[in-house]
Design brief:
single chain; 172 residues; mainly beta; SH3 type barrels; 2 domains; eight-stranded mixed beta sheet; seven-stranded mixed beta sheet; 2 helices; elongated
């Protein structure tokens, strides 16, 4: 499993030319909670952010994201229910609430399975700085019935029983 934040800042390399085509700025997820597109930093604020669709990537490596060749399409597709890590409709910082109104924590990162379908498999959550220092962050395996709302991620009531301390064992 990989943390989505670990992808941010990585160079994106064209394997045909060896040329760096950008740096990962953000990640777009679709309504199925799968990575759909990687947004790249641009050198000027006048240009729409360039992007690489996940299908165009060869690998989301430890030190770089690689693509077979520089994609001709340079924008993310417009998806109605898309969300991002940090911009526009963002997931980082949203509270995770059970259907009965219990807050489990704030999303600090998401984990995805890089070998399968790049789908979110869990949330890293914080209950605040003091709690992070004293008890550590929490891990919630992705509940299938999760709903991304405007101001919160809503999960089933029983999800509070699945919250565990974040350890290397939980994240692989």
């Amino acid at each position: 499993m990989r943390k989505a934040r670990d992808i941010i800042g990585l160079p994106v390399i064209d394997l045909k030319t060896g040329r760096r085509i950008g740096t990962v700025k953000d990640i777009m997820f679709d309504s199925n909670w799968q990575i759909r597109c990687i947004l790249l930093e641009t050198k000027t604020w006048l240009i729409t952010p360039r992007a690489v669709e996940l299908d165009d990537t060869v690998s989301l490596g430890e030190d770089a994201v690689t693509v077979q060749e520089t994609p001709t399409q340079t924008d993310c597709p417009v998806l109605k229910d898309a969300f991002f890590l940090f911009q526009d409709k963002k997931i980082i910082g949203l509270p995770v609430l059970t259907k009965n109104g219990q807050e489990l924590g704030l999303i600090e990162d998401v984990y995805f399975d890089e070998k399968l379908d790049k789908r979110i498999v869990g949330f890293e959550m914080s209950e605040g700085f003091l709690s992070d220092v004293t008890a550590g962050r929490k891990w919630l395996p992705f509940p299938e019935e999760a709903l991304l709302g405007e101001d919160a991620v809503i999960v089933p009531v029983q999800s509070h029983q699945e919250v565990k301390p974040l350890t290397n064992q939980e994240i692989g």
